[in-house]
Amino acid sequence: MADYILLVAGVICIVVGLIGCLVPVLPGPPLSYAGILFLHFSRFGHFSKTTLLVLAAVAVIVTILDYIVPVWGTRKFGGTKYGTRGATVGLIIGLFLGPAGIILGPLVGAFVGEMIFKDDPGYALKAGFGSLLGFLTGVGLKLAASFVITFYFVKELIR
């Protein structure tokens, strides 16, 4: 019975982890990795220590990069801390507006933040675009990591 509970918990973590790649409040790759651990400790899956360590490292690195890449994107395109903070506020507000809000929130937030800092729409739009690019890069990295973890989960489950 415990094995089935671990299996169900693992599947839930994998699914929520994939959703977490798109919803910034949920840590996607770490949740996906938790799914691997649940499967590993059940009778349905046995991963090598190397596989578990590599997947853990991937989850940690991608999670850290998810915080760095949007800031880097904003800065790379000339943004300031106002743009970065605006992108964060835009992202939080965008969560309540669905998928379009999640994507456009950081762009609009960075634009507004930079407009507060410097009244130059061209400059603010460039910084906002950098924020959007950084955000989308972070989402892509999280999705890639979670899909790799999901692949190993499914592969072990059907083995």
Question: Which outline best applies?
Answer: elongated
Tally the helices: 6
| Secondary-structure content class | mainly alpha
Order of helices and strands: HHHHHH
Largest sheet descriptor:
none
- Number of E strands: 0
Mind telling me the C-alpha Rg?
Answer: 18 Å
The average pLDDT is 89
Task: Give the percentage of residues in beta strands.
Answer: under 5%
Number of domain units: 1
N/C terminus separation: 20 Å
Low-confidence stretches: none
What is the percent of helical residues?
Answer: over 70%
Short description:
The protein contains six helices and no strands. It is mostly helical. The longest helix has 38 residues, at 121-158.
Q: In words, what does this structure look like?
A:
- This protein has six helices and no strands.
- It has 159 residues and is mainly α.
- The protein has one domain.
- The longest helix is centred in the last third of the chain and has 38 residues.
- The protein starts with a helix and ends with a helix.
Topology (elements, then pairings):
Layout: H1 2-20, H2 28-40, H3 49-76, H4 81-95, H5 98-117, H6 121-158
Name some characteristics of this structure:
elongated; mainly alpha; 159 residues; 0% strand
